[in-house]
Amino acid sequence: MAATLCAWGRAYVLARVSVRLGADAVLGAASHCLCASASNRRPPPRLRYAAMTRDMSTKVGNARTVLDSSSPAADLATVGLTKASEQPIPELEVRVSELDVSQWKGDLLAIAVFEGGMSDEAFGILDKDLNGLLADVAAEEDFTGKSGQASFVRIPGQGFKRIGLVGLGKLEKSSLARPWKGVGESIAAAAKTAQASSVGIVLSALDQEGVDSNAGASGITSGVILGSFEDTRFKSEPKAPKLKRVEILGLGSAPELEKKLQNLVKVCTGVISARQLVNAPANVLTPSALAEEAVSIASSHSDVFTAKILDEAECKELKMGSYLGVAAASVNPPKFIHLQYKPPSGDVKTKLAIIGKGLTFDSGGYNLKIQGSSIELMKFDMGGAAAALGAAKALGAIQPLGVEVHFIVAACENMISGAGMRPGDILTASNGKTIEVNNTDAEGRLTLADALVYACNLKVDKIVDLATLTGACIIALGNEIGGMFTPSDELAEELSQASSAAGEKLWRMPMEENYWEMMKSGIADMVNTGGRPGGSITASLFLKQFVDEKIPWAHLDIAGPVWNEKKKMATGFAVGTLVEWVSKHASSS
Length: 589
Description:
Shape: elongated
Largest sheet: 8 strands, mixed
């Protein structure tokens, strides 16, 4: 008996080590240490810490979340002893000013100019108001107005400390899109260098045909706000942004633009929040931490939001076998997030659902991501969830009327353990359909399957899901364009207009039904991946199996644009598109 207890003790210690190191081989070794006789043998203890701890329930409005303070979620979140420092999203004052350019006082004055625009009458008037300063800067810096050009110089004896020219590129009358955001980012970079706390912005050549001054002001302001924010929460010496005030000059009194800019600030807050979520490493942002973020949004906007967080047991009751199959290997328990937005007053005319893929880390499972597969970046596999929650934060501040929105995230990790999903396993989703897993690294669609069924059961009018789903979509569209898959022409047009208004790029992709042949299984209803050819198409066809055909649905594959490889940072892609899409369904009263 003593020998048996000793063996169990060794197994338990080894198992604890394996959980901490993620080395399931240790668990295997532990099983060979058991020396109980066959007649006295019993199964090894279940070493899922979640089963050993007491759940603490917290209510927010109608929200309930399960916070396991002594659970592995809390424990593993401290791997490496890393905690994010407090970095509140800065509050910028953005306004439209009637001041003449020569009267403005502040740190940095930026003039946005189209290529060749220095010869325009409008530019000449500005230059005259500034005593020829603009012509001098253009001559000294060889500035022509090309896209990406920016020249700033320090000027003594003026109400502003620095003045600069920023290029808008060629004025293409046939194009509605302008490089406004890029101009704003250039201004933000100059403001950082100058440590400016106030920026004045002037749009030159506003009288030219095809120039939308409101769109220009909005785009540049968005670029300045997002470009000025730097995520330093995980640096030993975090920095606070200096910029406090942005003024748009030369547009006169513009109440509609003023209101638009105020909403824009709220959208940018949502984008920054999404960036922070994606930037956070997996040892900090666990499924429980993501759920806590959702509850925080509900708490901050409790007049319009309620939150419901389902734990593993509740998901089992709903028969979410597809989602739970992915989550099975991780010691961090899954959290199914449901945020509901209801307008503060008036009737609801439209019910929408936004679903974000929420893999806080994706190892690939037994089909392990090997060298060259960007496993070190798989913290961004919850980019869809980040976009959904970022949009929720923005909409909670804007509070559109007439529209109800459900934000849904099936949050979990895709890891490896003896209890995990294996290649060849068959999972049963909550709509009863069975899935033969032929690749554990095609896990996102498995979590989305049950999330889509859940959304359909809410009887919503339209559904949009977002996911960093396939590398195939990156191969097809690159790193700046998201793929849009939908059987609905109407919904495709809505999303195209929303993305255009937000300055984000979506491209509608085909859903070739013949490709479903690649997704058929000999022993189940389907397999979870059809191989490399048309990989993003077959993924969308898989998701379609879990959507009520009466509900218009679109899938956005954002694997490419969710991350900026050059800056090594998240982009917050799709937050603006989602806010625009929801706002178009809002009523004015």
